[in-house]
Amino acid sequence: MSKIDELISKFQEVSNHPQQTVLKYKKETGKGLVGMMPYYAPEEIVYAAGYLPVGLFGAQNPKIAAARTYLPPFACSLMQADMELQLNGTYDCLDAVIFSVPCDTLRCMSQKWHGKAPVVVFTHPQNRKIRAAVDFLRAEYEHVRTELERYLHVNITDMAIQEAIKVYNENRRIMREFCDVAALYPQIFTPVKRHDVIKARWFMDKAVHTQWVRELIDTVKAEKVEPWHGKKVVISGIMAEPDEFLNIFQEFNLAVVADDLAQESRQFRTDVPEGIDPLEQLAQQWQDFDGCPLALNADKPRGQMLIDMTKKYDADAVVICMFRFCDPEEFDYPIYKTEFEDAGVRYTTVDVDLESPSLEQVRTRIQAFSEIL
Amino acid sequence: MSEEKTIDIESMSAKDALGYFLPKVDEDARQAKKEGRLVCWSASVAPPEFCTAMDIALVYPETHAAGIGARHGSPALLEVAENKGYDQDICSYCRVNMGYMELMKQQTETGVTPATLESSPASRVPLPDVVLTCNNICNTLLKWYENLAKELNVPLINIDVPFNHEYPITKHAKRYIVGEFKEAIRQLEELCGRPFDYDKFFEVQRQTQRSIAAWNKIATYFKYKPSPLNGFDLFNFMGLAVAARSLDYAEITFTKFANELEEKVKNQKWAFGDNEKSRVTWEGIAVWIALGHTFKELKGHGSLMAGSAYPGMWDVSYEPGNLESMAEAYSRTYINCCLEQRGSVLEKVCRDGKCDGLILHQNRSCKNMSLLNNEGGQRVQKNLGIPYVIFDGDQTDPRNFSEAQFDTRVEALCETMDEQKEREGGNQ
Q1: Which ranges of chain A have pLDDT less than 70?
Q2: How far apart are CA B392 and CA B65, in angstroms?
Q3: Is Repeat a UniProt keyword of this protein (chain B) (predicted)?
Q4: How many CB atoms lie within 10 A of CB B215?
């Protein structure tokens, strides 16, 4: 096994076995775990509490059974999977769970948690660009801090949050650098390998993840950049799982050179600004963030952002990974679709569903699309 | 104006007043457009006070879509929106509206009325100069209006009322909403090119409170058993609570309606005559595409709808002149609150209506009103000891509603209610 493969396999071990990873972490460090429901909960506050923030992005190929009692079929498969994992005890290792409520499904999900851990809910403001929104979100984050202190019996100081912000911003910077590097080496970073390096962030101490990624980047950069004979695409959506889904891209020689996924790049697109009040800084980050349907902006910049990404990464097309039953994502589609057509950007849409991924349909679609490209 | 002279509103029945005022709201918007005044499309429980104070005519896409649905015109417009890329998963009110908007846009751009619009029963409301949203009933309204603003290149006034995961509503949430009210005023001043009319605003606030007081009074007639009020009438009259609560149209009509109900009580004239066998609470949006069917099916079993939390969402009572009180009123909508508050509102509606059962609409178009149905039903069953059923439906997409399933569920509910009454020794 080459050094690069060895390094990547460490990330894959984490991404493929999240529960095992976090339980091992708990045992080795004596530290607790706090579940972060999607989307955009302030991990820094948890990190500052001395706990590991753990992403709750469902599971690959989940078997949904008990969740059916609590959710109708038109709730997305991510929430179905999360509900199943609450009910089957997978999430019992968590010491607390943080919920944001940017969509209607999450609003309701936040009110029917069936796991053992206590739940902390907060609301993101959606009139984001006015000053009052920052004040509001700062107060919501204060609520998150107070609730965590109460449940976890800890004291979360401003200083500790500032430290956490540094660790997280550093990780964000290195992740952006990683994405740029990975785009140059599609022979090394197959879609799944790229995804696994990024996904591992959700189950690791970010400081350690940063070190691992630094080492990986430095090792890869020693390699010669080879010409890529396939096509290059940017993928956009909530998430691109299971692995079999991404393998179809590889099968037809499509390199993922950039992503605009809620589970991946949207997490590290925007740094937390510097300042003297860490909770306010975290609130400002939400004000600065853009291009996600869960963060309202009447200018709807996402289409242009994707067009710019195709230029920056010299991509041949955008592949929309449309998460089934995700109405916020579905709302953006008619808008950017027209913008792509006007700008001459090629695109296609494939359905993403964790529970029943319809891989044959995806394969047919991707194959046809790769032939057109 | 000359038309109004010949119309004798005074002697109209409540039903006639509704039939007169509801289309008049749309007519007012058309007139405003003709006169070069601004038109705003608004979410149904967004605060109209700001626009009304600035003499901007308001149109309500949800009411508009419900009307189209009731007149069986939704499939054609749904198809237009779906061809444009709006997924079937998206709220059907929104898709009907996006279809309508698209056709109106085409008409404006080409000067030719598209055939689909020509044959549509949709009331011809003009396209907006500004759009106003408020997510006190769902976050879908944020995305919907974000798209409207982008598609039509008009400003978006957004009154974002954060989901109340804690109740009572926090001080910081109220402060944020007041901040948004001030931003809305700034936007309107910029749009209209004149200072905000605070005097008229105060007047409009008081008018809104009178309308709402009259609206709330109607629902109090469910205290009578048998009931003089047929709950489905609330669905019919609700159009004015949505579209005209800041005008006197709503107050006039609702006052007439309340007076008529008072008269019925005096004369012991009950909604179902001597045939009120049971009473149910209806949770969720009406199935506009099958309003007649759902009503008749219940009536066939002698089951009177005697309560619904849905029309109660327009109870935006506040203290005029107090922005924080207004912020609280627009934020406390029961489906914008934590399960405990939401459940307690539903329970109160069942109790106040002296209901024997609860029927919950699992609405394919409304995740926010559907995903906690089980929890709501279970709470009511536990605390009040009454049964519940859930049926699958949709407000305006007929593909998602089956009469047969609805009828089976209603039958099951009625049987359970009957059995319960027998066990308890007759109608209590």
Answers
A1: none
A2: 20
A3: no
A4: 28
Q: Give dist(CA A52, CA A97) in Å, integer.
A: 11
* Chain A CB contacts of B87 below 8 Å: 322, 327, 330, 333
Q: Do A104 and B143 touch (CB under 8 A)?
A: no
3-state secondary structure of B392: strand
Cβ distance B371 to A75 less than 8 Å, yes or no, reads yes
Q: What is the pLDDT of residues B73-127, one digit of tens each?
A: 999 999 999 999 999 999 999 999 999 999 999 999 999 999 999 999 999 999 9
Categorise residue B273: left if φ over 0, alpha if ψ from -120 to 50, beta otherwise. left
Q: Is A25 exposed, middle or buried (0-12, 13-18, 19+ CB in 10 A)?
A: buried
Nearest Cβ partner of B367 from A108, A121, A296? A108
C-alpha dihedral sign at A228, A230, A231, A235:
negative
Question: Do B89 and A110 lie within an 8 Å CB cutoff?
Answer: no
Pairing of strands B130-134, B278-283: unpaired
What is the spatial distance between Cα A333 and Cα B261, in angstroms, rounded to a whole number? 49
Residue corresponding to tokens 């178009």: B365
What does the domain layout of chain A look like in residue ranges? 28-154
Nearest CA in chain B to A80: B371
Q: Which residues pair with A351 in a beta bridge?
A: A322
Contacts of B160 in chain A (CB under 8 A): 125-127, 133, 296
pLDDT for B3 beyond 60: no
β partners of residue B156: B131
Strand ordering across the sheet containing B57-59 = B57-59, B39-42, B130-134, B156-159
Could you tell me if B227 and B264 are in contact, meaning their C-beta atoms sit under 8 angstroms apart?
Answer: no
Given CATH 1.20.140.10, say whether it is the number of domain A28-154: no
3-state secondary structure of B62: helix
Q: Tell whether A111 is within 8 A of chain B (Cβ).
A: yes
Element (DSSP H or E) covering residue B258 = helix B248-266
B399 in reach of chain A (CB within 8 A): no
- Nearest by CB to residue A130, choosing from B91, B179, B339, is B179
Cβ contact B226:B276 at 8 Å: yes
ipTM: 0.97
Domain B16-201 sits in CATH at: 3.40.50.11890
